[in-house]
Amino acid sequence: MSDSVKTLPDILRQLKMLCDQGATGSLFIVSNQNHPFSFGINKGRIVSVQYRITFGMKAIPYIGAVQRGKTRFENNNVGRTQNDLPSNKEIVQAIIAAHKEAANARSGSPSNREPKPIAKGPQFSTSSPSLFRGEKREQLEAILIDALGPMGSLLCDSIAQNSDVSSVMEQLYQEVNEPELLDRLEGKIRKIAHA
Q1: Which of 129, 150, 132, 128 is nearest to 190 (CA)?
Q2: Contacts of 133 (CB under 8 A, 6+ apart)
Q3: What is the C-alpha separation between 20 and 41, in angstroms, rounded?
Q4: Fewer CB atoms near the end CB (10 Å): N or C, the chain?
């Protein structure tokens, strides 16, 4: 296993990178709660998803509830192939939606058990006004997706509710372990906030 603990968005970035490279093998993850899950990849296509003893799309809500984990990739070890899986993009989107649902459940917001497609716009009520509403939120989401891929949308939903740039950046630094990237993003985020 990798010695560093990664957030779920970082794990999904690693999965996307392996798929984009056309890798064949298995990405094994042990969550911060010591629960194993894995993705089998064959020539860049996700062909198996497993969380403990749950397989396929039924494993997605459990994976979405994970906050952090350690990863290891093994070449040429695909594991049990599942023929009924949707596209890579649909799998990642379902995990992101499940992750949002789990975050809502942890914060006390209403939650449904089935993952839903990623919603446009924030689904939160905040005690202080959000700095990123309407067009500013859309601009924030666009730069995060450009920099972080699909996980940018996930992060945008949680950070757009902040009322100041410092809080946004603090939350991003907790979730994304790439200081140089975050330094570049900070200027763009400040520009949107003060437009």
Answers
A1: 132
A2: none
A3: 11
A4: C
Tokens coding 126: 């905040």
Phi-psi category of residue 92: left, alpha or beta, with phi > 0 → left and psi -120 to 50 → alpha: alpha
Report the DSSP beta bridge partners of residue 29: 37, 71
- Residue 64: pLDDT above 90? no
Name the strand (E) or helix (H) holding 137: helix 135-148
Contact 73, 26 (CB under 8 A): yes
Tens of pLDDT along 82-99?
A: 778 899 899 988 888 888
For residues 150 and 131, is the Cβ–Cβ distance under 8 A?
no
User: Quick check: helix, strand or coil at residue 80?
Assistant: coil
96-137 residue pLDDT tens? 888 888 777 766 654 443 344 433 333 434 345 677 888 888
Q: Is 62 helix (H, G, I), strand (E, B) or coil?
A: helix
81 is written with which tokens?
């192939």
Residue 182's alpha-carbon distances to 14, 45, 186, in angstroms, are 18, 29, 6
CB 85 within 8 A of CB 57: yes
Please report, as a single letter, which amino acid is at residue 44. Answer: G
**Closest by Cα among 126, 125, 176 to 154:** 176
Side by side, the strands of the sheet bearing 54-55 are 6-7, 68-75, 25-31, 36-42, 45-51, 54-55
